[in-house]
Amino acid sequence: MRFLVPLSGEIRSGSRNSALRTSNCTGRNRFRIGGVARGGVRREPGWQETWVPLQPTDAERRMDSRVVAATDEEAVVFWHQRGVSAMGERIDQPVLGLYRFQQGRLARGQMFYFDTAEVARFLSHASSEASAAGVT
Q1: Is residue 46 part of a domain?
Q2: Fewer CB near the terminus (10 Å): N or C of the chain?
Q3: How many domains are contained in the chain?
Q4: What's the pTM?
Q5: Which domain holds residue 66?
Q6: Does residue 5 form part of some domain?
Q7: Within 13 Å and on the Cβ side, how many CA atoms surround 26?
Q8: If you write DSSP's letter for every residue of 46-86 in order, what string do you get?
Q9: Residue 88 covered by a domain
Q10: What angle (nearest 5°) sits at the alpha carbon of residue 46, between those of residues 95 and 52?
Q11: CATH code of residue 89
């Protein structure tokens, strides 16, 4: 396996139109993170539907990403997932992402949160707060 050291591996979350992009990981790839979909049917809300409402400012969208390793087919990226709930509760958790590319496009993205229990608790509270406030 050949590892490439990127000169400027930058991944950051952004607007609804470009949730996650990389400037030099395995060339010039741009990709979005979605939900679990098989056969064209989405089973659960995707990353954007879950996190974009919890990232109203650049501070929450900042990922402080670092490409750990990359080949022509995949990349491993360390980054931070940040968010803020409607009541002001904040989260800042490290994540390790494994991204597989086919024909220059994202074929699969897996995110491994270092503290899944804390992320699940935060998302549950944020969802409850949004429901109580009538926000979807």
Answers
A1: yes
A2: N
A3: 1
A4: 0.66
A5: 11-133
A6: no
A7: 23
A8: -HHHHHGGG--SHHHH----EEEEE-SSEEEEEEEEEEE-T
A9: yes
A10: 75
A11: 3.10.450
